[in-house]
Design a protein that fits this description.
250 residues; mainly alpha; 11 helices
Length: 250
């Protein structure tokens, strides 16, 4: 599966019910579409929610509440991270199992968890990584410096000078690459270009290799994301940039 057309990731520390939408946004950028609506229409996902209250919250600078499918009301947020390795498979499963009748919030959460490869919502909750530990002042300064080189849409606007900050920034691009998928150089370039605006995707591609977040064959024909567990600082940057990307959605 080509990352430039279908999208097949995420590693996003954001509420579970929002992760699929961020995946659509990322896939849309890589595919050159103007917004998430086109990608959503392509996947033919159900859209029966009343988003008036949700959009109002976004306009006031808040976070988007999770809609209740059964009543159309607004439910409290469920801050459970969710990893989606294959967006197309996730959407296909969700579409094929989505009932025609209205469902409860509990049933909807179960369907989302199953589409992501978990047995049920409880299995998803039990599979979560530990909470972020307390970070010292130096770590917080590095995180702040990393976030400063991204715009409000979570796209990099300049390359930081410090190596320690570069690593944190690259963790974001690492999450954009699909896991366990062979990629061409063009595939990698498309993902990087969709998430930066300073015009040097080649630097980013090389830096991912140097920081051992990705690898390539000797002839440079095939790239792969390297499996790893982001540290606490990287996770904080990933979480903050994920929230920026979601907030930037029209």
């Amino acid at each position: 599966m080509k990352a430039t057309t279908e999208g097949s990731w995420l590693f996003s520390y954001i509420p579970a019910c929002l992760t699929a939408r961020l995946a659509l946004i990322t896939a849309t950028r890589a595919a050159g579409r103007p917004d998430a609506a086109g990608c959503k229409a392509m996947l033919n996902l159900p859209d029966t929610f009343d988003r008036s209250a949700s959009d109002a919250a976004i306009d006031k600078g808040g976070s988007r509440p999770i809609p209740c499918v059964r009543t159309g009301g607004v439910m409290s947020r469920s801050p459970i991270p969710l990893m989606i390795d294959d967006l197309s498979q996730f959407a296909t499963h969700l579409r094929s199992h989505w009932p025609g009748a209205e469902v409860t919030q509990t049933q909807a959460l179960g369907l989302i968890a199953q589409a992501a490869g978990y047995r049920n919502h409880q299995h998803l909750k039990a599979s979560q990584p530990p909470a972020l530990p307390a970070l010292d002042k130096q770590a917080l300064n590095r995180i702040k410096a990393a976030l400063a080189v991204f715009d409000g849409s979570a796209r990099m606007i300049r390359w930081p000078l410090k190596t320690s900050v570069q690593r944190l920034c690259l963790a974001w691009f690492w999450t954009r690459l699909p896991d366990r998928v062979d990629l061409t150089e063009q595939d990698v370039n498309a993902v990087l270009k969709a998430n930066e605006v300073f015009g040097d995707h080649v630097l980013l591609r090389r830096a991912l290799i140097e920081h051992k977040m990705a690898k390539r064959t000797v002839d440079g024909a095939t790239y792969r994301r390297i499996g790893r567990s982001p540290d606490a600082e990287e996770r904080a940057v990933i979480k903050a940039l994920s929230e920026r990307a979601l907030a930037a959605v029209p």
